[in-house]
Amino acid sequence: MAGNFSLKKFSDIDLNDPFFDSLKEDYPVGGTVKPFEVWFPEKAQEGRTALVFDDENGLGAFVCIKDETENIVLTDRTLPKKTRCKITTIKIAERFRGQRLGEGAIGLVLWKWKDLGWEDIYVTVFDKHDLLITQLTKFGFIKVGYNPNGEGVYLRSRSNVDYSDPYKSLPFINPDFENAGYLCVNDFYHDTLFPYSELKNTLQTSVALNVRNGLSKIYVGAQYTVPPYKIGEPIFIYRIHTGSGTKRYKSCLTSFCIVTNVIAVKRSGSHLMTFDELLAKIGNKSVYDESELQTKYNNDKNMFVVEMLYYGYFGEGHNINMDTLETKGYWSSSHGGIYPALIRLTPDEFKEILREGNVDVDNVIID
Asked: How confident is the model at residue 367 (pLDDT cuts 50, 70, 90)?
């Protein structure tokens, strides 16, 4: 799937694009709320921007957020005013149904909410938009009622994070994890699986992050030992530099994820599942196409799959190279010389490494 997310001014977007037809139907002229065809030009005049996905077929996603300090009026009660992050508009093109573009868009918004530091984030959606509602509930939004316009109101709060499921708690890490680890990935696979950006403090600045292939990631490995990760544990993504130059200074940590599953596919030449079962597990989340997977399945002596959820990144200028990890005591020489993927980091070590990457730990790991 070609295309990327970018930040665009409303004034640079064609309101007559068929992409917006459903929004015009949901908020029509003569309805109980301001028509979309009136609201959009007003926001264009104000200089409003939106996170937009474009590809060769046109608009694929449109997401707009704002801060809001007012009551949320429901049909049965009113939620008191406070400063909240409101998703004023979120739409994913129907042609992306079943793909993971919506997952990436929601992830970007949740990262932004985390950075803003506000307690709540919410969005209003009509019941007929079943795919969007499925995605929102998957990522922890809870339906708190209906507004007078007949839209469901879906809300998430920092004060009530559901840590039973890494999707529902994203972007906040469960403070009760026991260990963390490293996942080591060659650069040419890393840059497809774990792209990262210099996402600034607001969505009113440049957005370069490419999450068009979603936040759910699959890593297929061939080392002799299945990694010791447990479901729900955080892991750092270590980008192995395979080009020229000293690996010690060019290989580095770039991102961090939460493990959602570890699957042994093949051990010592023996298959532990059929190829069809492997494909069913991986879906469209792997960097390998089916023929490449078939070759690995047939030829690799050992094969395992790590499923994970992309939780955050350090960003350019903050990645942590191997030399720093070694010097600070976080690498193999300080852990008995074992292979990095087998290192078990303590919670304190994990937090110290996050700080080394300029991450606000107290805004990522919250009680």
From this structure: confident
Q: Which residues lie below 8 Å from residue 181, measured CB to CB, with a gap of 6+?
A: 227, 228, 229, 233, 235, 236, 341, 342, 343, 344, 345
Scored b (16 or more CB within 10 A) or e, 8-45 reads bebeebeeeeebbebbeebbeeeeeeeebeebbeebbe
As a whole number of angstroms, the distance between CA 21 and CA 156 comes to 28
Yes or no: say if 1 and 100 are a contact pair by the CB < 8 Å rule. no
The CATH number that domain 181-363 falls under is 2.30.130.30
Q: What is the fold, at CATH topology level, of the domain defined by 4-160?
A: Aminopeptidase (3.40.630)
Upstream peptide bond of 171 is cis (omega within 30 degrees of 0):
yes
**Residue 298 to residues 18, 220, 271, Cα–Cα distance (Å):** 46, 14, 9
Going across the sheet that includes 49-55, the strands are 4-9, 49-55, 58-73, 78-92, 120-125, 152-157, 142-146
pLDDT digits (tens, 9 = 90+) for 82-117: 999 999 999 988 887 766 778 888 888 999 899 999
Residue 264's identity, in one-letter code, is: A
Domain boundaries, the chain: 4-160, 181-363
Residue 352, Cα to own-chain centre: how many angstroms?
22
What is the value of pTM for the model shown?
0.88
Strand residue runs (E) in 294-350: 303-313, 320-321
- What is the dihedral sign for C-alpha 10, 14, 20, 23? positive
Cα(261)–Cα(257) distance, rounded to whole angstroms?
Answer: 12
Per residue in 173-194, pLDDT tens?
999 999 999 999 888 888 777 7
